[in-house]
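Z., the sequence and structure:
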Amino acid sequence: MNIIYLNFLKFTCIKSYLFLKKFFSFTKKNKKNYLEEKIKKNGYIIINNFISKDSCKEIIQDINKFIKKYPHYISHDLIKSDLRINGAENIGKKIYKFKKNSQCLETAETIILEKVSCLFTMANKLIFKKKNLGSGGGWHKDSIYSQFKAILYLNDVNNKNGAFQIINNTGDLKGNFKILRILKNNVFNTRFKNSDVIKITKKLNLKINTLIGSAGTLILVDTSNIHRGSPIITGKRYALTNYYYPKKMLKVYDNHFKPILKRKILN
């Protein structure tokens, strides 16, 4: 049997086992809700006016102040277009409040089917620079298994300043198998070239969804689907992202992201 399909068989067995184990052990009462159904269908849901524009402005001020004062805590790409503060809940009360939001947490649990925690909130400032790849360094999946993030736009985001993009139906078993047949690569790969995405969307008749929104827009998303922050053509983009993981996996991922701010520094 072709090694590619052996890998997929292994992937299918692992994913099926984990799903059944989680489903029967997960005891949350309201397993089904509107948000969950929309995310499972489309890969995401958009909630407008999640916080006020004034709150967004305050958070942006905190981010800019921190970047200027504590550059050694900033992670970034090679050209310094994608600036990140991991553990941003420690630089402002409003960011801390977003990290602790119960609606986001409950939705994460219905998608991942486990008790989860928000490991940290990442504050993101994207700046236009030539040949930037956008947030996340191009098309990718966060995991081949169920994964969840809550993304909050802090300024108005359009199709020119780094809007989040996602291709739905690329994270489940059926989608993974179809992608495997098209690309003939290892199912455990999580990075995709632009040429890969063109092949996938064309042959599977899938749409690249570009999620624009005004300041205060919340995106709840299953990031096991192929996605990226689109390359910035002009301007800037500010956002917060909550990273949710099963509680038993927190220590594993705690060492994955560096640096992470673990103490309060600003207000």
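Residues 3-254 form a domain with the Jelly Rolls fold (CATH 2.60.120.620). The longest strand covers residues 116-127.

Let me know what you think.
H.
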